[in-house]
Amino acid sequence: MRHVKWFHQVLTVLSLAALAMASYWLAERNHNAVHAAISTSAPKAGFRAELKTEPALPRAGEPVSLSFTVKNGKGHTVRFLQFVHEKPLHLLVVSDDLSEFYHIHPEMQVDDSYSVRQTFPYGGIYRLYADYTPPGYGTIVEQFELYVEGPERPRVPLYADSQLTKTTGGLKATLSSDKELRAGEDLMLRFKLFDEKTDAPVNNLQLYLGSLAHFVIVGEDLNDFIHAHPLDAGEVFDPSQDPTLHLHDPSQLTKTLVGPSPSEVSAHVNFPRAGLYKLWAQFQRDGRIIVVAFVLKVAERAPKTKQAQAASAVPTDAIRINVTASGYEPSEISVKRGQAVKLAFYRADAQNCAGTITFPKLNISRQLPVGEAVVIEVTPTETGELSFTCGMGMYKGTLIVE
Ligand SMILES: [Cu+2]
After folding, report:
1. How far is the CA of 91 from the centre of ligand 1 (A)?
2. 58-75 CB burial, b ≥16 within 10 A, e <16
3. Ligand 1 center from residue 24 Cα (angstroms)
4. Cα(131) to centroid(ligand 1), Å
5. Are residues 83 and 191 in the same domain?
6. Domain around 89
7. Distance 216 CA to ligand 1 centre (A)
8. Alpha-carbon distance 324 to 320, whole Å?
9. How many domains does the chain have?
10. pTM score > 0.85 for this model?
11. 385 backbone dihedrals φ, ψ, rounded to 5°
């Protein structure tokens, strides 16, 4: 009899332990599921994108829906995102060793989210960069870390390329820079493109999402992200500008190049810090997207000369306007009609188009070198709004003249 009692006690203890372990396992699994996608960036201009994945815990080799819902500072869903480069949202995805790269486009859904299906080939950590533009605001890039369950592949170590000519997809690309690759410098990266077979300069590039190329650059710690585009695309036919065409479907509004393409494309880039960066250059040719990747080593910032220190100083009687990755801060300034006002634009880091400032109504256009305070003096003659924008009209600011 005593044995039976002892046996029951052991059984109870064992089943309690099993129960505890099962609930711990379940909690752990649920914990992982809920947190498969973690946002790694702060809200910008009050906007925040929420990422939901379906299934909640993505598995390698199985399709997963990535859904983004953009909310404004009041927590309201932003339904319509501005079409930039022909898409409302650009999603750049890299594996955490930077050996995998995807550039995909979530589309608007009936629930006002933006969703795209993706299949991750391997398990592990991926970094997602959601690049979107709320109407009337500058471009915002939010980062997410995504954990994918499943077999992982060996990590690919990151080494700087010793030679900067790569051949892929029938295209030979040579990368050069107008200056030594140094952090904080305004650099012009140039890509010379040749046909792999003939070695002749290419002349049949096509526009990809309205641009001759897309450059995506990610720093080795995954936090630094640059999405750059060539400034000049040559002569472009834009159906949305042709009044004889009554086209409303965005897919019919694709811009096309007129005539042969240039064989060189270049873009302004500024690396925020020293270290290794991987650059993916995307070109379109014969209807195919060709991705050429380079690993670049960026040197430390040049020590600031006395002259540079002086140039970066903002005069005491000027209004300082910081030019950052998400636009102008402040973006609205109240001024008095008939009174001269000094505006000191200071660009600490660079996004492509923020290198120029324009006051269209005043016919003012100035370059904004990184690290230099550029003072523009205006005397508004009329009350109302006086707008200023970046070179491509993506960043906007307003002088409220009273
Ligand atoms: Cu895109």
Report:
1. 6
2. bebeeebbbbbbbeeeee
3. 41
4. 8
5. no
6. 33-148
7. 10
8. 13
9. 3
10. no
11. -105, 135
CA 18–ligand 1 middle distance (angstroms): 49
Q: What per-residue confidence (pLDDT) applies to 168?
A: 96
- Please give the distance, rounded to the nearest whole angstrom, from the Cα atom of residue 149 to the centre of ligand 1: 26
Greatest mean pLDDT among 10-14, 26-30, 66-70, 241-245: 66-70
Query: 144-156: per-residue pLDDT in tens?
Result: 999 999 999 999 9
Residue 33: its pLDDT value, please? 44
Pairwise CA distance, residues 313 & 316, whole Å:
9
Interatomic CA distance for residues 310 and 304, integer angstroms: 10
Q: Ligand 1 center to residue 380 CA distance, Å?
A: 39
Q: What is the pLDDT of residue 184?
A: 84
Distance 68 CA to ligand 1 centre (A): 15
Cα-to-centroid distance, 325 and ligand 1 (Å): 18
Are residues 207 and 291 located together in one domain of the fold? yes
Q: What is the CATH number of the domain that holds 144?
A: 2.60.40.1930
pLDDT for 268-327, tens place per residue?
888 989 999 999 999 999 999 999 999 999 999 887 666 666 666 788 889 988 887 667
**C-beta separation of 358 from 389 below 8 A:** yes
Distance 308 CA to ligand 1 centre (A): 36
- 402 Cα–ligand 1 center, Å: 41
Q: Answer whether residue 385 is part of any domain.
A: yes
Rounded to 10 degrees, the C-alpha dihedral 194/197/203/206 comes to -90
Residue 291 pLDDT: 98
Q: Rounded mean pLDDT of 346-360?
A: 72
CA of 87 to the centre of ligand 1 (A): 7
Residues 173, 282 within the same domain: yes
